[in-house]
Amino acid sequence: MTQALLHRPTGQGVAMAARKISEILPRTPLLPLDVDGRTIWCKAESLQPVGAFKIRGAWHRLTALTEEERARGVVGVSSGNHAQGVAWAARRLGIEATIVMPVDAPEVKLANTRALGAEVVLYDRPGGEDRDEVAARLCAARGATLVHAYGDPWIIEGQGSTGIEIAAQMAELGLAAPDQVVAPCGGGGLTAGLALALPDAAVIPVEPEGWDDVCRSLETGTICRVGADAPPTPCDALQTPGTWPINFEILRARCPFGLVVTPAEIRAAQRLAFAKLRLVIEPGGAAALAAVLAGRTPSAERTAIVLSGGNTDAQAFARVLSGAD
To answer: What is the pTM assigned to this prediction?
Structure first.
């Protein structure tokens, strides 16, 4: 039995991850935003060194490897943000990293991953190639450790450190911890981690239209996968085929439901974040804000949202701001 199978994500593990991360990274800002007369609290994870929250899980995971595992290297799967988090942590720890990335990943994410020293192996996402199968072959051939983007206990715990910081920052402002947290959701690593970090809050995952497998999984009580006819989406970071049991076990117990947002709503959220918060947010990173702005979230006294990433190229973001997209 592997080390990963023996480890289960817990609230204590999230707290440990938060302590480890606080030793190497400053906290990202928690910014107030007025929405229809109420204040929501926006966690600006787009300001992480790699432009996304994924650095948290990557650091927690790679620092948990044994010396033997470090020597054999790691293999990750990612459309770009997890890739950069793993590459950043691996370079700092002297570990060889290979990332399986889709051929249609944004060029900025491919370039940044390579610049951090990771080897990139491309797979044909548009053609239906399975990235997990590609990664499994690489791990078998090299004896490397798989560092999955969301289906990994340490990754879940690391992402949950976002919630530990949110609660601490709200306490410093004289506020109780949030009673509702809204977060972008791909495979469910962030939302599962937040559920462990903030057990008294309702955690609401938000997915792009047509890629709402977690929403449907919560509705049916069983894991659903994205259909073969899923439409194109600007949210490359949230294009995951389906959650994993390790994530869904937590989500099913803690998340009352999920929400779906449209491309137009996401673009509106990107524009508002730029205008009001002076932040560049990529489409997937704006999903939670889009749900709040669209009025889909329930009323709550203290709502926090995660602006999960800002890795978008200048041309694409300029089109969003201009209304050309």
So the answer is: 0.94
Look up 109 and say whether it is catalytic. no
By CB atoms closer than 10 A (0-12, 13-18, 19+), residue 91 is middle
Nearest to 268 by CA among 300, 249, 291, 248: 291
DSSP code at position 118: -
- What count of Cα atoms within 13 Å lies in the side-chain half-sphere of residue 319? 10
- Residue 311 amino acid letter: N
Residue appearing with tokens 């209304």 = 323
Known catalytic membership, residue 20: no
Catalytic residue among 20, 43, 54, 109: 54
Q: Which residues contact 230 (CB under 8 A, 6 or more apart)?
A: 210, 211
> Do the beta carbons of residue 291 and residue 191 sit within 8 Å?
no
Do residues 93 and 193 lie in contact, with contact meaning Cβ atoms separated by under 8 Å? Answer: no
Q: Cβ distance 87 to 97 under 8 Å?
A: yes
Give all strands (DSSP E) within 125-189, no chain letters.
145-147, 180-184
CA 280 to each of CA 7, 232, 270, 283, 323: distance values in angstroms, whole numbers, following the listed order:
36, 22, 7, 10, 15
Catalytic residue among 46, 79, 161, 308: 308
Closest alpha carbon to 45 in 306, 250, 292, 248: 306
In sign, the C-alpha dihedral spanning 30, 186, 121, 20 is positive
**Run means of pLDDT, 10 residues per run, the chain, 325 residues:** 70 97 97 95 98 97 97 93 96 96 90 94 87 93 95 97 98 97 97 98 97 96 92 92 95 95 97 98 98 94 97 94 84
Terminal CA-CA length for the chain: 49
